[in-house]
Write a structure and sequence with these properties.
Number of helices of chain A: 3
Largest interface: A-B, 51 and 51 residues
Low-confidence stretches of chain A: none
Order of helices and strands of chain A: HEEHEEEEEEEEHEEEEE
Helix content of chain A: under 10%
Strand content of chain A: 35-45%
Shape of chain A: globular
CATH topology of chain A: Porin
Mean pLDDT of chain A: 96
Oligomer: homodimer
Distance between the termini of chain A: 43 Å
């Protein structure tokens, strides 16, 4: 049986009531040599799914407290409330005696279609992935291992990658796992924090997430996901970043927003 | 000394380490006879400010678990991490033995202006408040006491108030407390959940918040606040609602988003 990188690296083993053990690997390295926060959130989302025994994260909020480190991690979960449509739980990702990440999440079942539907948001109008280019421009950076896990394809290589930030704090691109794993609801909360922050186009050197909340709105169909990322307001070094995601059928899969600090 | 309704009704008294006692009053009744969730969040925000001893909520995430009830409430707070720029804590609002609301929040100091600033969002272009009308259209509804606390003024009375929903799920209006209390950072996390949901313009009867996250971006100047609310996507009865707020100088004060369920 084939195993996929994302599944291997977010695997968690139940230890005792509500506590899970996982391992932070070096395959999700982000800008600045840090472990990508979305990947750390993936460990928590996985533990929460086990704990709540409901298939779909509907809403996940993560507060990033400290940088993650390579090596063992414990995820401590607590059920807050089991509801009819939404069940809520909390997770704390702990390394050594330090809490790295605290998460609140509501899980449910996105296959139960009930109630009103009206979707006004439109997916990005991108050329098909084959007519787009890899956003890394074929370059690799030491420690930036996440680009070996995920492929993002856009109309053109972003300005900041080429050394000339465009000033445009929006980006549109396709995303998929490089190893062929399909993006499912469980991976979505990770992936909305896995692309380069668009403040890099405004001359920032990087950005560090304080809080991220994602609403997962639908189970994605297999295939590339179309993403739109934008930052409108940087104030005293703090900025929001919105990240919306559509599947290959044009269904809105997720909307996320984070508050982050530029550096 | 004059006291204001919002301050009286969100007052919390420290009981023992990290626990506060407050009272849920009948002055913040919302559509459907429920207690407004923003008001309940105000009790938590106030307790968190005491606990963290930092002036400004930077980001607050609230998970609404059950309807609040009139009468006593306990707010149990725990400090998660005291950081250099951001300190993080959790609050649980409990009534009887039931948890009603769980909150994570990061507090800091918005008077410390440091780092990059670039604001692309624009406030709504509204006529001055004197040239706008009260959105209630002068009507009052039994139990809907919150409209006696807060005044919202728009270009015209919303369609749903007049019995003919417009289909336009955006709204722009001015907001202030009716008793003259200025809106400050502490009130902001309440107020982004205090207006009528814009899904009412799509024919919904109401909406119940599952999760709300607000980024407070600046301390507001005194005076009316300009608000823009919008919902773009209702899917299977779940919808997001974005609520942005600017002060009288045109400074972006807050951006919030919630996931809610229509009824």
């Amino acid at each position: 049986m084939t195993t996929f990188e994302y599944d291997d690296d977010t695997a968690v083993a139940r230890q005792q009531d509500g506590t899970y053990r996982g391992e932070v690997t070096d395959r999700w390295g982000a800008i600045g040599g840090t472990v990508n926060g979305g990947y750390l959130l993936g460990l928590c989302t996985r533990a929460l799914q086990h704990t709540l025994d409901r298939p779909d994260p509907l809403v996940v909020s993560a507060y990033f407290l400290r940088p993650g480190r390579l090596g063992p991690a414990a995820v401590r979960t607590d059920v807050v409330r089991t509801g009819r449509r939404v069940s809520t739980a909390q997770a704390r990702l702990v390394q050594g005696d330090k809490e790295v990440l605290r998460v609140l999440a509501g899980f449910g079942d996105l296959s139960t279609h009930q109630g009103r539907t009206r979707v006004d948001s439109k997916p990005p109008e991108l050329p098909v992935p084959d007519d787009c280019v890899d956003v890394t421009g074929g370059r690799s950076l030491p420690g930036l291992s996440i680009v070996d896990r995920l492929e993002c394809r856009a109309r053109s290589v972003p300005g900041w990658v080429q050394g000339s930030p465009s000033g445009d704090m929006t980006a549109e691109f396709w995303m998929q796992f490089r190893d062929g794993r399909e993006i499912d609801v469980l991976a979505v909360p990770s992936l909305v924090d896995c692309a380069a922050p668009v403040v890099l186009e405004d001359g920032a050197m990087g950005s560090s997430t304080i809080e991220l909340t994602v609403h997962v709105r639908a189970r994605p169909r297999p295939g590339w996901l179309a993403c739109r990322v934008s930052t409108s307001n940087v104030m005293d070094g703090l900025h929001e970043e919105d990240f919306d995601m559509w599947d290959s059928d044009g269904t809105l899969v997720a909307q996320s927003r984070q508050l982050a600090m530029v550096f």
